[in-house]
Amino acid sequence: MGGVDRADQNINAYRISLRTKKWWWPYFAHVLELVMQNAWLLFRRTDAHTAEPLDLLAFWRRIVQVYLMRHGAIAKPRRAARLALPAVHRVPDEVRFDGVAVGHFAGPSQTTKRCALCKKNTKKLCLKCTVGLHNQCFNAFHGIH
User: Fold this and answer.
1) Is residue 37 located within the same domain as residue 66?
2) In the predicted model, what is the mean pLDDT of residues 68-77?
3) Count: domains in the chain
4) Any idea where the PiggyBac transposable element-derived protein domain is (predicted)?
5) The whole model's pTM is what?
6) Which of 29, 38, 109, 140 could form a cystine bridge with 16, CB 3.0-4.6 A?
Protein backbone atom coordinates (compact mmCIF):
# COMPACT_ATOMS: atom_id res chain seq x y z
CA MET A 1 0.00 0.00 0.00
CA GLY A 2 1.49 3.32 0.95
CA GLY A 3 0.51 4.91 -2.35
CA VAL A 4 -0.99 8.36 -2.80
CA ASP A 5 -4.26 8.87 -4.66
CA ARG A 6 -3.64 11.79 -7.01
CA ALA A 7 -6.81 11.46 -9.09
CA ASP A 8 -8.53 14.43 -7.44
CA GLN A 9 -5.39 16.53 -7.77
CA ASN A 10 -5.06 15.71 -11.47
CA ILE A 11 -8.76 16.32 -12.11
CA ASN A 12 -8.73 19.69 -10.34
CA ALA A 13 -5.87 20.87 -12.54
CA TYR A 14 -8.13 20.93 -15.64
CA ARG A 15 -11.69 20.80 -14.32
CA ILE A 16 -14.60 21.07 -16.75
CA SER A 17 -16.66 24.01 -15.58
CA LEU A 18 -19.74 25.00 -17.52
CA ARG A 19 -22.78 26.70 -16.06
CA THR A 20 -25.87 24.68 -16.72
CA LYS A 21 -29.31 24.04 -15.26
CA LYS A 22 -29.11 20.31 -15.83
CA TRP A 23 -28.70 18.51 -12.52
CA TRP A 24 -26.79 15.64 -14.06
CA TRP A 25 -24.08 17.70 -15.82
CA PRO A 26 -21.62 17.87 -12.87
CA TYR A 27 -21.86 14.10 -12.45
CA PHE A 28 -21.30 13.49 -16.15
CA ALA A 29 -18.36 15.92 -16.24
CA HIS A 30 -16.76 14.27 -13.20
CA VAL A 31 -17.08 10.80 -14.73
CA LEU A 32 -15.57 12.11 -17.98
CA GLU A 33 -12.69 13.66 -16.05
CA LEU A 34 -12.09 10.37 -14.20
CA VAL A 35 -12.13 8.42 -17.46
CA MET A 36 -9.66 10.80 -19.08
CA GLN A 37 -7.38 10.77 -16.04
CA ASN A 38 -7.36 6.96 -15.91
CA ALA A 39 -6.77 6.75 -19.66
CA TRP A 40 -3.83 9.12 -19.26
CA LEU A 41 -2.36 6.94 -16.51
CA LEU A 42 -2.69 3.83 -18.70
CA PHE A 43 -1.17 5.70 -21.63
CA ARG A 44 1.80 6.75 -19.50
CA ARG A 45 2.36 3.14 -18.40
CA THR A 46 2.18 1.68 -21.90
CA ASP A 47 4.01 4.53 -23.61
CA ALA A 48 6.85 4.76 -21.06
CA HIS A 49 9.54 4.10 -23.66
CA THR A 50 9.10 7.48 -25.38
CA ALA A 51 11.59 10.20 -24.60
CA GLU A 52 9.03 12.93 -23.92
CA PRO A 53 5.87 11.78 -22.10
CA LEU A 54 2.63 13.72 -22.50
CA ASP A 55 1.30 15.66 -19.55
CA LEU A 56 -2.44 15.55 -18.78
CA LEU A 57 -3.29 18.72 -20.73
CA ALA A 58 -1.39 17.57 -23.83
CA PHE A 59 -3.16 14.19 -23.57
CA TRP A 60 -6.58 15.90 -23.44
CA ARG A 61 -5.67 18.02 -26.46
CA ARG A 62 -4.49 14.99 -28.41
CA ILE A 63 -7.73 13.11 -27.65
CA VAL A 64 -9.81 16.12 -28.74
CA GLN A 65 -7.80 16.52 -31.95
CA VAL A 66 -8.28 12.86 -32.87
CA TYR A 67 -11.99 13.06 -32.09
CA LEU A 68 -12.43 16.21 -34.19
CA MET A 69 -10.50 14.70 -37.09
CA ARG A 70 -12.81 11.69 -37.08
CA HIS A 71 -16.17 13.22 -36.22
CA GLY A 72 -16.00 17.00 -36.27
CA ALA A 73 -14.82 17.81 -39.78
CA ILE A 74 -18.27 18.09 -41.34
CA ALA A 75 -20.60 20.45 -39.54
CA LYS A 76 -24.22 20.65 -40.52
CA PRO A 77 -24.87 24.00 -42.17
CA ARG A 78 -27.37 26.01 -40.22
CA ARG A 79 -30.21 27.65 -42.02
CA ALA A 80 -30.29 31.38 -41.63
CA ALA A 81 -33.29 32.69 -39.81
CA ARG A 82 -35.83 34.06 -42.22
CA LEU A 83 -36.74 37.63 -41.54
CA ALA A 84 -40.42 38.35 -41.87
CA LEU A 85 -41.03 40.93 -44.55
CA PRO A 86 -43.69 43.55 -44.04
CA ALA A 87 -47.04 42.62 -45.58
CA VAL A 88 -46.80 45.55 -48.00
CA HIS A 89 -43.89 43.87 -49.78
CA ARG A 90 -45.41 40.38 -49.78
CA VAL A 91 -48.25 41.27 -52.11
CA PRO A 92 -47.01 41.84 -55.69
CA ASP A 93 -47.69 45.34 -56.98
CA GLU A 94 -49.56 43.96 -60.00
CA VAL A 95 -52.10 42.37 -57.67
CA ARG A 96 -52.12 45.13 -55.09
CA PHE A 97 -52.76 48.07 -57.42
CA ASP A 98 -55.06 46.50 -60.02
CA GLY A 99 -58.11 48.35 -58.66
CA VAL A 100 -61.09 47.54 -56.48
CA ALA A 101 -63.19 46.39 -59.42
CA VAL A 102 -60.95 43.35 -59.96
CA GLY A 103 -61.80 41.32 -56.87
CA HIS A 104 -60.46 43.40 -53.98
CA PHE A 105 -63.15 43.27 -51.32
CA ALA A 106 -62.91 43.64 -47.56
CA GLY A 107 -64.23 40.55 -45.85
CA PRO A 108 -64.25 38.96 -42.41
CA SER A 109 -61.24 37.01 -41.18
CA GLN A 110 -61.43 33.83 -39.11
CA THR A 111 -58.51 34.98 -36.95
CA THR A 112 -57.15 38.31 -35.82
CA LYS A 113 -54.57 39.63 -38.28
CA ARG A 114 -52.24 42.61 -38.40
CA CYS A 115 -53.24 45.46 -40.65
CA ALA A 116 -50.72 45.68 -43.51
CA LEU A 117 -50.76 49.48 -43.35
CA CYS A 118 -51.15 50.64 -39.74
CA LYS A 119 -49.99 47.39 -38.03
CA LYS A 120 -52.93 47.31 -35.59
CA ASN A 121 -55.01 44.18 -35.03
CA THR A 122 -58.01 43.69 -37.29
CA LYS A 123 -60.67 41.08 -38.03
CA LYS A 124 -60.98 42.15 -41.70
CA LEU A 125 -58.90 41.19 -44.71
CA CYS A 126 -58.70 41.77 -48.44
CA LEU A 127 -60.16 38.64 -50.00
CA LYS A 128 -57.84 38.80 -53.03
CA CYS A 129 -54.55 39.81 -51.36
CA THR A 130 -55.27 37.85 -48.14
CA VAL A 131 -53.69 40.52 -45.96
CA GLY A 132 -55.27 42.07 -42.90
CA LEU A 133 -56.67 45.55 -43.53
CA HIS A 134 -58.96 47.92 -41.65
CA ASN A 135 -61.82 49.51 -43.57
CA GLN A 136 -60.02 52.86 -43.20
CA CYS A 137 -56.71 51.45 -44.53
CA PHE A 138 -58.21 49.41 -47.39
CA ASN A 139 -58.25 52.16 -50.05
CA ALA A 140 -54.86 53.59 -49.07
CA PHE A 141 -53.22 50.14 -49.27
CA HIS A 142 -54.58 49.55 -52.77
CA GLY A 143 -53.72 53.05 -54.01
CA ILE A 144 -57.34 54.17 -54.39
CA HIS A 145 -58.04 57.75 -53.39
Assistant:
1) yes
2) 76
3) 2
4) 1-40
5) 0.46
6) 29
